[in-house]
Design a protein that fits this description.
The chain has about 325 residues and is an alpha+beta fold. The protein is built from 8 helices and 14 strands. Helices cover about 30% and strands about 30% of the residues.
């Protein structure tokens, strides 16, 4: 079985930023390079040292913990010298410039990856695209289950799952204390799981030459056939189906899950309502390079050294799963 992230240096990610820098502004932009920190933990540590609120920091995307990652961060109202003088283990800060607006999620062209895949007995499959699923990092074990409970308005159940305390049956009040960003993430995780299930069924229906690969929340289908790309719905209260086959798949899935589009409206917690979105069903690998060498950590095995680029929101771990499973 292949191994990735055996050490942080085996998984290197660098954002391709989409920002406009200015000579002055209320927002300071910098590159956060980190190892053995997830993005939220790193920001929490920096905010604590600088004695500013975490909400003053904004990012374009969340990066893994067990990796070496470089990403752009904006922070409001912080002095450059104070930021550059921060000393936190396994965190480096590189000043970029100023701006008049905060960084927003998805505000990047994509990511460059350098990955070492270890413990190989043979070379991987040759691929030039991946099916654009959401991978394990999105689900974290039970994030989608919490999202399902929220969409079903089973607030008491969700509070029990999260071991939250509430007063006089005010379950929504208890959830609000987590912060709308985290609670919305649970809903988004469930939408991502529904997307994966629906895409799985669609590919199974349309393509015959495929193979299955397990992941933490179910199964993926990968195909060696050329797949026609289009934007596939991520379910929400404003979702409109343009393809009858996709609509039938989602109808069946919603019946099984006992949810409907309108359930993504939260009248008692409107900040987490979700109108839905779209996502391309495949993405191409850009500038893919592969080199095989002896694996110095596993005697008698090979390692693959991969480098490639993916657009924002796509998962490099899917490249590894498709190539080496």
């Amino acid at each position: 079985m292949y191994i990735i992230k055996e050490k942080p240096e085996d998984f290197v990610v660098e954002e391709i930023p989409k920002i406009e820098l200015e000579k002055k502004g209320n927002y300071l932009y910098f590159i956060l390079e980190k190892k053995n920190w997830n993005t939220n933990e790193a920001i929490k540590a920096m905010a604590s040292r600088l004695r500013v609120k975490e909400k003053y920091f904004n990012i374009a995307g969340i990066k893994d913990k067990k990796a070496v990652t470089r990403q752009v961060v904006s922070v409001y109202g912080v002095n450059r010298n104070r930021l550059e003088n921060l000393k936190i283990k396994d965190i480096k800060i590189e000043f970029l410039g100023y701006g008049s607006e905060r960084l927003r999620l998805g505000q990047m062209f994509g990511n460059n990856f350098n990955i070492v895949v270890r413990n190989l007995d043979k070379k991987g499959k040759k691929i030039n695209f991946i099916e654009n699923y959401f991978d394990d990092q999105r689900f974290g074990g039970r994030n989608h289950l919490l999202g399902h409970g929220l969409v079903r308005k089973e607030y008491r159940k969700v509070c029990y799952m999260l071991r939250l305390k509430w007063e006089k049956g005010d379950y929504v009040g208890a959830l609000r204390k987590l912060g709308k960003k985290l609670v919305r993430f649970y809903v988004n995780s469930y939408q991502s799981w529904l997307f994966n299930k629906a895409l799985y069924e669609y590919l199974k229906l349309k393509y015959k030459n495929y193979y299955k690969v397990d992941y933490s929340a179910g199964e993926f289908i990968f195909s060696d056939e050329k797949i026609k790309n289009f934007k596939f719905p991520i379910l929400g209260f404003l979702t409109e189906f343009k393809d009858r086959e996709v609509e039938k798949i989602y109808d069946k899935l919603m019946k099984t899950e006992k949810v409907n589009k309108e359930d993504f409206i939260f009248r008692d917690f409107p900040e987490i309502s979700s109108e839905g979105n779209e996502r391309e069903i495949i993405v191409s690998l850009k500038d893919l390079k592969i080199k095989y060498e002896d694996d110095e950590l596993h005697k008698g095995k090979m390692k693959a050294i991969l480098s490639f680029s993916l657009p924002a929101g796509s998962y490099a771990t899917l490249v590894v799963k498709k190539m080496f499973s």
